[in-house]
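thoughts on these tokens:
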Amino acid sequence: MTRPLIAILRGIAPDQATEACAALIEAGITTIEVPLNSPDPLRSIQAMAEAHGDRAKIGAGTVLTAGQVDAVADAGGRIIVSPDANPAVIARTVARKLESWPGVFTPTEAFAAIRAGATGLKLFPGSMAGPGGLKAMRAVLPPEIPVYAVGGAGPENFADWIAAGAAGFGLGTALYSPGISTEEIAARAAAIVAAYDAVAA
């Protein structure tokens, strides 16, 4: 079962990336991003894509330039996530036939990203907008465009966000922080998946 959850592995190192990816897939999270401000992120992405690309969608976060899009694509990445809505990054992502998930916070940014060809939108930081902010934006956005809440969205408030129109979630520190074991990643992932399944059914 594929769930609309993106694991954000900020700070993960290549020597743990493949086994962490396997643990996430086993728990039921099959979209995984390695932010580009992690140690040697392209090597982690390539290793995960080679080992698990048939079972998971691997890509990069904190993608800020078109050149970075090319580097991720060349490493085998299939999804590009950004903290901002840069039309050049979106255009290059579309040209490379990858999924584009730019960060937006206002209707202006959201519509600019949609016009540029975004696959979906990342409401960031979610904690500042809150479910109320998403609900207001969702009223005017095209219904077919998914919006994922990132930053401030997690098991304790999945239900509120879903009620406001969130199609999915990006999960960072609730799921991973540098230095934790793969076993801990697996345990956190299982708990998050269970919480999501309980309210998304």
Observations:
- Helices lie at 14-27, 41-52, 66-74, 87-95, 107-116, 126-138, 158-164, 182-200.
- The domain at 5-200 is CATH 3.20.20.70 (TIM Barrel).
- The first strand starts at residue 5 and ends at 8.
